Task: structure prediction
Amino acid sequence: MEAIKIIDFSNQKLKESEIIKRILSGEKELYEILVRRNNQKLYRVIRSYLKDDTEIEDTMQNSYLKAYTNLHQFRLDASFSTWLTRIGINDALARVIQKGKLLSINEKSYIDDNTILQMPDKSELNPQDKMIKSEAKQLLENAIDQLDTKYRTVYVLKEVEEMTHGEIAVILDLTVANVKVRLHRAKEMLREKLYELSFDKNVFEFGFKKCDRVTENVMNNI
Result:
């Protein structure tokens, strides 16, 4: 009977390039590290296009499997996360197109003269605000959901995932200037609803059970 390999998650600190080299050399079980590292980000990005949880998880799994199948094409000097995110967005858009709900994400944006929204620091919240933190988080998620796809995606990547303008430009095939324009517009559209709410980077959480389920399904199919 073939021995079962146990993943040493102390390897979680390995560089992406080293992990990928070892996966390509036959240690496919290490792919689980890449899946778990990217689950939260991929979920948030795909959720910018799709809303059904089952469909989001299916798209995530397909994206991971596609990335694994084509891993030999990945440039080791690039970011696996960025590469995977582009795959995820393409898969999500394909599903939107199939539904006939494709939004005009390439439509020109515009800038107005208002100041870009700056969210209050959590430490500035009064006791009452802290008591309704969970409700505020839900309101924030709902407000972000109401943005057009092209604004919502940029907002999530920059403000929630804290990616750089350059990284977002690569992922969405935009210029850095266009990324800044869309981010500016997203913040302006959220201004009224979010001005007095704390910014919580835990929005759109991909919890432990979901993370484990997607990871297990991906690893069972590679």
User: Anything to note?
Assistant: Residues 1-6, 101-122 have pLDDT under 50 and may be disordered. DSSP finds ten helices and no strands in the chain. The first helix runs from residue 16 to 24. Residues 87 and 187 are 26 Å apart (CA to CA).
